[in-house]
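User: I'm new to structure prediction. If I give you an amino acid sequence, what do you actually give back? Let's try with this one:
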Amino acid sequence: MLMEGRYWNEEIETMPRAELEEYQLRALREELEFAYENSPYYRRSFDAAGVKPGDLRELGDISRFPFIDKKTQRDAQGVGSFLGELCAVPEEDVVFISTSSGSTGVPTMSPFTQRDFDEWQDVESRIFYQAGMRRADRYLHALNFSLYVGGPDVIGAQRLGALCIWGGTIPSDRLIYILQTYRPTCMWTSPSYAWHLGETCMKNGIDPAKDLAVRRIFVAGEMGGSIDGTRKAIEELWGAELYDFYGLSDIFGACAGMCGEKDGLHIAEDHILVETVDVETGEPLAPGETGELVYTTLRKRARPMIRFRTGDIGRIDKGACRCGRTHGRIHVMGRKDDMFIVSAVNVFPSDIEAVVRGQKGITGEYLIRVTEKSYTCQYEVTVERSESNSSETDEEVADRIQRALKARIGVKPARVVVEREGALERSLHKARRIIDERKLTYSI
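Assistant: Good question. You get back a string of structure tokens that encode the predicted 3D arrangement of the chain. For your 444 residues, that looks like this:
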């Protein structure tokens, strides 16, 4: 599908809400039946919960079915077959597998049939298109290709018709050479690396905004793209528009992304049913309420994901967007595992990043250290003072940041540590922003 209209697939993207939910209900019934008939895990799990696919009469009935999570995937992986008990097709039907990073445990495998793979790449084309990519663009794909589910997303850009440069995770000097020589107009990487690469260009006498051709940057893997301060800082550095994408290896690459309105990330609701549940009880929450995001695939065959608890905290807005798209927009606040509680206040690293990125006189790099004292949780933040900031002492910078954090979050850090510019480690991909030194267990 090569086109130059307003939408990649207008019929799907602008489907009236009632019709979209009818479509979801039909697809969900088929997905549940397929999973029950073909996956040993789901048959056993549904039977143990006393539910059958036929019990689904409306979308809300999905709450009667059991959850799965990362532990479920690990426990089922390799059981009974190479692909494991969650898989619903024979290995001969699987054409591609990716794996998770293993950052929260043993890496988990994600299999795809040919239909799964093709439909995934059509969603990638849709998400690129809604972020403004067109056939005339040159696209630099600066993501890992080593088993990472985001690697093949470059095929979605090719299907759209863009000229694609398969950069991968190569050293910064090689990427800068590509940026200068091939002059791509679009690029996808992580927020941390977009910032790092821009800084590296400046240190080498290259102004990204003036000397390079990048005018759209797509980011994923971290919270930064949806944090106003971070997004605007990267946009100013590059002279480009930044669009946040969201995906997870458990389903497929980018399954949600910003449109030009940049008011949340449109999720492909023709492929994924989104629920929000209470973090503690698992009880369903109304659209718009904040809780743990739970996803159910509607069309995936190799490994259906029924009520997958993502560990991401956020909400979904199902109101129509100003861009005309009707698919809901997710707003992700952070990972359940990264959230910590100080004086009864839920603190997300994204809240701290929003403050740090919005302050002048510091580089925007930061590190959070979570500790405990007298059986209570506390946190400290390390920032870098800009070399150009000669008007403040370290103590003045620390006091200003501490007051800004208290105003934004409601609880101030135990202390703010001010380091020289360049003291904190830069990341080429996902930056390590939080170190948890607690020994106690704190419930969410």
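You can read the tokens as a compact description of the fold. Here is one thing that stands out. DSSP finds twelve helices and 19 strands in the chain.
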